[in-house]
Specification:
By secondary structure, the chain is of the alpha+beta class. It contains 21 helices and 21 strands. The strands form eight sheets. A five-stranded antiparallel sheet has the order 5-6-7-8-9. The protein has a three-stranded antiparallel sheet with strand order 1-16-15, with helices on one face.
Amino acid sequence: MANKDKNRDQVQGRDRTAPRKEGQSVPENAARREAMRSPMAAGGVQRSAANAPVAMGARPPQAAPAPAMRQVHDGMTEMPQAAQAAASGAVDGLSVLKRTIDKEKVREARNILMEYKQGKANLEQRVIEDEQWYKLRSWECMRKTNKAADQVEPVSGWLFNAIANKHADSMDNIPEPIILPREEGDKQEAERLSSVLPVILEQNGFEDVFDSEVDDKIRQGTGVFGVFWDESKLHGMGDIAVEHVDILSLFWQPGITDIQRSPNFFHVTLMDNEQLVAAYPQLNGKLSSSTIDLSRYVYDDSVDTQKKSAVIDWYYKKRQGKRTILHLCKFVNDEVLFATENEAEKYPGGWYDHGLYPYVFDPLYRVKGTPCGFGYIDIGKSAQEYIDRGNQAILQNMLANTRPRHFIRSDGSVNEEEYADMTKDFVHVDGNLGQDSILPIQGKPLSNVYVEVINNKIDELKEVTGNRDISTGGTSSGVTAASAIAAMQEAGSKLSRDDIKASFRAFRKVVYMMVELIRQFYDTPRFFRILGENGQQEFVAYSNANIKPVHQGVEMGIDLGMRSPLFDIEITAQKKNPYSKMSQNELALQFYAAGLFNPQMSDQALVCLDMMDFDRKEFIMQKIAQNGGMYQQMLMMQQQMLMLAQMVDQTRGSNLADQIAAGVMGTAAPLPVDGEANVKTDGNAALGGDETKGGESSVTQNARKRVAESTSPT
């Protein structure tokens, strides 16, 4: 918990990769794994003071790259060696025969993908429609035919307001990880990870990633995180990438609720053909349009996909002994770009050592038989539809009544054009003008009951979405006290707190994948800059040297196997909302007023706090116990000072003990008795000094007293 409130700064942005000779290829994963088996000279984390000089010329060894073919943000990827060999025309016939993943396997995978896509059709249709509702284009979903020229289609933002408030609640509680050890020996490493992980998240712009994920979760019912290793980061050293992933680009086995149970998992992205050919020259002349029809949102812009191809990341799992191995195959059409099984000697443990699909689903309201949920648009769009239809009927009636209409006899003598033209001062008629020649149409004003029905629908929408007025800062009639309003707001945010806790559970899985990627890839130390306990800047060099699996040896002929440090992950809110801050400060003031921080009452305070439940309770109890212990030590020191002062008073004739006791009791201190001055005077007299300065000596006073007593009459 000590690292919970640390302020983290960004990582040092220096290129620490060793230079490579011209024409030298990037080391493959085999070299990286070989390096992981050897001990690290860096020795984990090293700290130095903020003012310590950093040797700019010192460069750690070159970091072996991540598994090849990791797609980066700009859509470009780096070719593995197999792709480079194919592009240069050098084909190893033996390696081709040994390939496990060939065109036939890719066609089988494509058929599986199409089955998964067909099973996901209803979900995709609902997600696309929900996006239209969010953009206040609900009439495009509600009307069955094209819009008439004079048709009124009012749109109100009640549902949008509910979604915006739920999103604001989530952004007030951005998650932050705290790593806790499971063994005493891993405590220091857990503290280091707690300092490093928030910096890695900040480098990935996690606030924007979390913002996009929460948007999808609230609107569509499911947000998705992607946790990858991006070898293009840090100038080729590689680092963790945490990204938001669109649900429309992912495909899994229908009928499951956990994607990790799906035998196959697909991530499909569209890339420009020119970029693909530039990255993979063997694709030249083999690309046309996309062979897979991906579902798309209704964009405002015209999006042309004719010159794009679908790049498919095919993840699948295989059992190898007691382990589950994750494999990856990347292909376009029937062309295999990369496959871990085709390079088994370089990837003996598969793609990622943790063996999990690198995606985390965060559903809002879960549904049986699918890893996805449904969102607030699905809950509130029925009420929003009737609100808009009711407003449409009222507005159409208003327009009909404000625009006068008339009945005109077919044999009437009134010039209709002149009568309808309000700029004409005169209207011509033929013959006599009868009372029934033109009759105005009397409009029907609507009853107030229709407005009441719409208001009831608005209240229904607020109720079902948990977006009552009190949650948005409004007050009910009769409630004026600030404490009562705050209590009602806290009670009204139960749904938001439940949603936030679900997001924290998903974020815990994200952090677990990050820790495992650090364990696998952080062979070379990475340098970070953080703020320490006292606000002092510290530089941290972190590697995986202390968290990699270590062989425990053999005892009595039994192999004890490997040991990997395991950690528990606790998630807290990085940013509290204003009410939480106010309530926390108010609670601290109440504790202070009750005297719980008085060290003399530490025992009673600890008993009282043990019966309570609030955030950071253990930290407060620890501080009170420490202050109580310091107070007891101070009392013991005061007693020792009194004893020493009494000894001094007996030998020097002073009253130091009385003065110290008065200071302890808080009473007025007595005037000091300067017994030391008499001693100094006696000393001066003995040395021949002037006894009249500073008073007579005690010897002179005693002699004077004896003479006076002997000469006085009895």
